[in-house]
Design goal:
single chain; 156 residues; mainly beta; 2 domains; 5-stranded mixed sheet; 3-stranded antiparallel sheet; 35% strand; globular
């Protein structure tokens, strides 16, 4: 969905005849199938300011290794951004696996740690509205047990 300013809308349908008048609402578009735009919707738009100021860059996600060898990711603004990741060392982007497909208040069960097996190179990037994407994660992993074997997790 492209970014739009809506004066009439209706959720859960593509039938425009069902749209109803609402106060102006800025709706930022979805970049992928698993992108949730509820955190990026601004109700009752009164003014739009265009600026040339640099927007800054999102911080990289935080990582924690679970006792079962799975990797959790977190971000201060986890409900407003998406964390895209790869486990093959390639650069992550909006077409990569998404760690947080839903917000913590909508469907928190969808946010699950990543299973790691053997030698794994994990890279992640934070993507969200209003700032440049984060750098890929510049973290180095360690040897760790994975089941009955020892795996290596390398975070870049």
């Amino acid at each position: 969905m492209s970014t739009i300013i809506a004066w009439a809308l209706r959720s859960e349908t593509s039938d425009l005849s069902q749209a109803r008048d609402e106060p102006l609402r800025l709706m930022l578009g979805q970049v992928g199938l698993h992108n949730n735009n509820s955190g990026a919707m601004v109700k009752s738009v009164a003014k739009i300011i265009v600026t040339l100021d640099e927007p800054g860059q999102w911080e990289i996600p935080a990582f924690s290794l679970q006792n079962d060898g799975r990797l959790s990711m977190n971000h201060e603004f986890c409900d407003s951004v998406k964390i895209y990741y790869t486990t093959d060392g390639s650069e992550p982007g909006v077409h990569s696996a998404v760690y947080n497909p839903s917000t913590s208040d909508k469907q928190p069960a969808l946010i699950q740690p990543v299973s790691l097996e053997g030698v794994t190179v994990v890279k992640a990037v934070v993507v969200g509205f209003g700032k440049y994407d984060s750098d890929s994660t510049p973290l180095i992993g360690e040897l760790l047990p994975v089941g009955n074997t020892v795996g290596v997790v390398v975070l870049f």
